[in-house]
Amino acid sequence: MQKRFRQWQLEKEARRKMTEEMVVIRQQQISEKLLKHEEERHVLLKEREELKEAFTEHEKLEAAKNLRKKESNLEYQDNLASQISFTQTIRGKEAEEKQRELQVQQFAEDQYQTRFRSALERPDVDRAHPLRSYSNSHDRLFG
Questions:
Q1: CA–CA gap between residue 68 and residue 38 (Å, rounded)
Q2: pLDDT in tens, 72-112
Q3: Distance of CA 90 to the CA centre of its chain
Q4: Of 101, 78, 100, 97, which is closest to residue 89 (Cα–Cα)?
Q5: Are 125 and 138 in contact (CB under 8 A)?
Q6: CA distance from start to end of the chain
Q7: Which residue from 11, 21, 30, 108 lies 20 to 30 Å from 90 (Cα-Cα)?
């Protein structure tokens, strides 16, 4: 019986040691798993921060791009407005010049018509044509 008791104690002690070793191994596994999860969490947080920074940078670049595009469009719009204004100014000046020429022509025509009517109203011609020279007025009339 003593032998059995001793055997039983040895088995009990072996089970206790084995259980303790299992608990230590399991604690190590849990610690390693927790550490791994913590590292993964840190990696995920770092990646999240990097993504956030990349997104912020992308937003800044897009905003700058949109601003440049808007400025370019406004510059183009101003350029077109300037071209339209210049074209309208030129057309206005051309119209004014044409109107002035028409007025000058009309004035010259009016003067011509006045002189022509005046010449027709005077049947007698007292003077010779400036390019012809006649000695008297009688020769001028009858040749």
A1: 45
A2: 999 999 999 999 999 999 999 999 999 999 999 999 999 99
A3: 28
A4: 97
A5: no
A6: 185
A7: 108
Among candidates 143, 104, 109, which has minimal Cα distance to 125?
143
Stated pTM of the model: 0.47
What is the distance between the alpha carbons of residues 51 and 65, in angstroms, rounded to a whole number?
20
- Going by C-beta distance under 8 Å and a sequence separation of 6 or more, which residues neighbour residue 127? 137
Length of the chain: 143
What the block records as the tokens of 86 is 């210049």
Alpha-carbon radius of gyration of the chain: 58
DSSP 8-state symbol, 5: H
Distance from C-alpha of 124 to C-alpha of 122, rounded to nearest angstrom: 6
